Structures are given as C-alpha cells and as structure tokens.
Amino acid sequence: MQKINLVCVGKLKEKFWADAVAEYCKRLSRFACVNVRELAEKRTLKEEAENILKELRGAAVVLAVEGKKFSSEAFAEKIKAYADAGQEVTFVIGSSCGLDASVKARADLLLSFSDMTFPHQLMRVILCEQLYRAYMINGGGEYHK
C-alpha cells in the first residue's frame, strides 16, 4: 500500500474543514496509508522551512501557485507512477504566508491547482479530494466523471 504524507503548516481551525479532510482520508485508506502532519506556524518562513524539511519522505510534492498544473487524469497518472515505483510521497502545504524558497528548491515537483489563491485550510481539502479522485481514476471507479 502506498504511503502518502501530508505536511501542513497550521491547524484546521474550523470543524467543517477537519470533517472534510477526515472523510477523504477515510476514503483514501482503501488505497494508501495517509499520514497528516500538522506543523506549528512560526514567526518566519525560514523557521517553518526547517520543520518542513525534516518531515519530507520519498518524493516531495510542494504546492505552489507557480507550480505545474495537471488535469485530474494527468495527476492520477503521476500518482500511479509514484505507486508503481514503490515511492512514498510527501505533499507540502505551507502556511497562509507561503513557503520559504528552500522548501520549493527541495521539491521533486512543484504542483499548482490554479492560478488563484486559496485559503491553505481549503487547499488541504482540495488536495485530499484530488488524491481520492486520482485513485478512483486509476482503479476505474465511478467517482470521477
């Protein structure tokens, strides 16, 4: 079973965000072992980066607005390639202040979901949903339309 790590700076403050992430993590448990690691926000991005870099395992996929955009099908192919290689994947979502350049430089992939800016709490839900969609696409499930 593939290992997926979500390294997120900051806590989910609203119950509805936490409930949504929990639901998608439950759904994902059929396909992957998902570990969510919440890191404390720090005074500087450099301090946050030090903590983030310690948590990286396997392929580091860092969410950044300037990153590469994928269709859901192409994202599913990328997830499948990691799984086929037996590779653990760590996704990183920075704080509302962004990410230090050292985290982006360490990334195996900079990933963008849009040119728009989303709240980092919502981004965690979107990432979990897209991971679930990717596994459903790869498994031939009916979730993806």
What does this structure look like?
Helix 1 links the parallel strand 1 (2-9) and strand 2 (32-39). This protein is α/β, with parallel strands linked by helices and 145 residues long. It has helices spanning 15-28, 45-55, 72-84, 101-106, 120-138; strands spanning 2-9, 32-39, 59-69, 89-93, 109-112. 30% of the residues are buried. Strands 2-1-4-3-5 form a five-stranded parallel β-sheet.
Q: Reading side by side through the largest sheet, how are the strands ordered?
A: 2-1-4-3-5
The helix content, as a percent range, equals: 40-55%
Q: Could you report the average pLDDT, rounded to the nearest whole number?
A: 95
Shape: globular
Q: Helices and strands: which structural class?
A: alpha/beta
Structure annotation, total helices = 5
Task: Please state roughly what percent of the residues sit in beta strands, choosing from under 5%, 5-15%, 15-25%, 25-35%, 35-45% or over 45%.
Answer: 15-25%
| Largest sheet properties | 5 strands, parallel
String of helices and strands: EHEHEHEHEH
Distance between the termini: 25 Å
Whole-angstrom Rg: 14 Å
Number of strands: 5
Low-confidence stretches: none
